[in-house]
Amino acid sequence: MFSSVVTAHRVVAATMGVKLSDREEATREAVDRIDAGETLSEWDVERSEYNPKRLEIGDYVEFTKTISATDVQQFAAASGDTNPLHLDDEFAEQTRFQERIGHGTLVGGLISAALAQLPGLPIYLSQDLEFQNPVGIGERLTAECEIVEELDDRQYRLSTCVVNASDVLIDGEAVVLIDDRLE
């Protein structure tokens, strides 16, 4: 059904003379290309060399992605957060940010994407986030997650942050449970 909605939006946009940027078109096409356990060519993933049978303090994973205008629009539609700060250029220009910014929770979702790259089947137990700087649309961001403590029963505490080229945007920590991946 979602694919039909995306196709319908493309048709409506085309009839209204709206041309998507190449990056926005690639983001829309990504919805059609993604399957469980896959990564897309526009994402970058970096991991420490860890023992696939056992995670240890210091193991890390990073996930990098550009936050596009299409990502922001799709997140607004999926979440219901239609704050004009995220969606309306003219409104956003009048705010302290002077431009549209990405949703904090959308950006925090990059941490989830990074954690999904850990070996096994990571399951979120908790996440604390501190939003430190706004995210401009079109920024390339990296979620960095590092194991800082091994807890009981295959649970781990990780330091988490999302950064752009020069600033920490989100800082926090997460606790995950790592189950064995099903075959």
Describe this structure in words.
Helix content is 32%, strand content 30%. It has helices at residues 2-15, 22-33, 69-79, 84-87, 89-93, 104-115, and strands at residues 44-47, 60-66, 121-131, 140-150, 155-163, 168-179. The relative contact order is 0.15. The model is unreliable at 1-18 (pLDDT under 50).
Per-chain topology:
Layout: H1 2-15, H2 22-33, E1 44-47, E2 60-66, H3 69-79, H4 84-87, H5 89-93, H6 104-115, E3 121-131, E4 140-150, E5 155-163, E6 168-179
Antiparallel strand pairs: 1-2, 2-4, 3-6, 4-5, 5-6
For the report, how would you describe the main beta sheet?
6 strands, antiparallel
**Secondary-structure class:** alpha+beta
In DSSP terms (H or I, runs of 4 or more residues), the helix count works out at 6
End-to-end Cα distance, whole Å, is: 28 Å
The proportion of residues forming helix, as a percent range, comes to 25-40%
Query: What percentage of the residues does DSSP assign to strands (E)?
Result: 25-35%
Tertiary shape: globular
Which strand order spans the largest sheet, edge to edge or round the barrel? Answer: 1-2-4-5-6-3
Order of helices and strands: HHEEHHHHEEEE
Low-confidence stretches: 1-18
Average pLDDT figure: 85
Count every beta strand, where a strand is a DSSP E run of 2 or more residues.
6
CA radius of gyration is 18 Å
